Amino acid sequence: MRDKVGLIMMFAMPVLLALVITAVQNSTFELVNHNQIKLLLCNKDTGEASTQLYRAIEKTGMFTVIPVDTATNPEQVASLMHTNDALVAVIIPYGFSGQINTTANNISHDALKNFDLQKDGSKAHNTKNVYPLTLYYHPALQGSFRESMNGTLKGALQLVENKQIVRTLYAALNEKEIPDSLEQEMLNNQVPVNQIPISRNGSRNIPNATQHNIPAWTIFAMFFIVISLGSSVVREKLSGSFVRLKTLPTSYIVALLSKQITYLAVTIIQAAVIFSIGSWLFPHIGLPALNLPSDMVGLLIVSLICGWCAVSYAICIGVFAETQEQANGFGAVSILILAALGGLLVPSFAMPDAFKNILKLSPLHWGLEAYYGLFLEGGKLKDVLMNILPLFGITIIIQLLTLYGLNKKNLV
Questions:
Q1: Where are the domain boundaries for CATH 3.40.1710 in the chain?
Q2: Which CATH number is associated with domain 36-188?
Q3: What is the pTM of this model?
């Protein structure tokens, strides 16, 4: 309790990280799923197809379309984007409608010719230069987000092209315009796609930013006790406490286990505090609530093993460090590296292939996978055993390494 800095590092900092990162990530999810992105649309064409494209982009639901005057160069587009606080801009070129009509006529001509329905004296192909749409985007947009927008715009463009092809074919066959009801039925008759998150208990709860972040930063908080516990071990070595403990009529292992039990209780309190904040506080500040897993016994066991591994690692750092500065510096940096390798900072599936084997050496990876099995997949203890066992094995290795360091330094 006297270690005020250690308490801040163990409780205040992880809670603040969980709160800030969850809020930021949740706002990103809201931007993608609910909010609309401002899109500047500069239409240099005056035909019907460009108007249809405008409406199709609006109907996607992804963009708030802002019409702007004709822009002649990228500098003007950039200035308009900055003025309107827009992330993307689309330029529809001159002759866009004529190009769409020509393409539709060519495709219709080929289709009717293949079915021997083309009348004599029909016009030959009328080819024109292709004038592509131009998409300007803010450089801060990530590649995956950019591709998502590009796919949405291509879908809107495909809808306009298909509509013109259907109209041209129908007019060639029936010598009259296609009825609106038939046109809508032909164009909108798509096979639906049901999106269902996998789960072990059959639930259909959609994971949110809280479900992803709270388990991750709980593990991070547990391992960050290296700042307090590692420094404590170093102080005991420098102050001679280890020598005095050796004079007691018992093994030092007893004192070492006592220290581990005390700090293991601290890690469980950390988990309880962060989980409680996610469950009770987050809904009051506009963030999704944390849904605790149904297997509370499994949650407790996973938390105990994660906490024991964190405590073991902190003591190991303290045993081998010569000064508190070494323990704090190496401990903090190593936890950040293990968190990055373990998937806390970057999802493991997004890592390069060269790192996918290295991440298995990080205890934070196995702890995170066990928590995700409970929180995201709705699993039980038996479902995450293959994640707990490697974490338990790493803990035993760290314990043996600690005993080796104690013997080598004649501390036991």
A1: 36-188
A2: 3.40.1710
A3: 0.71
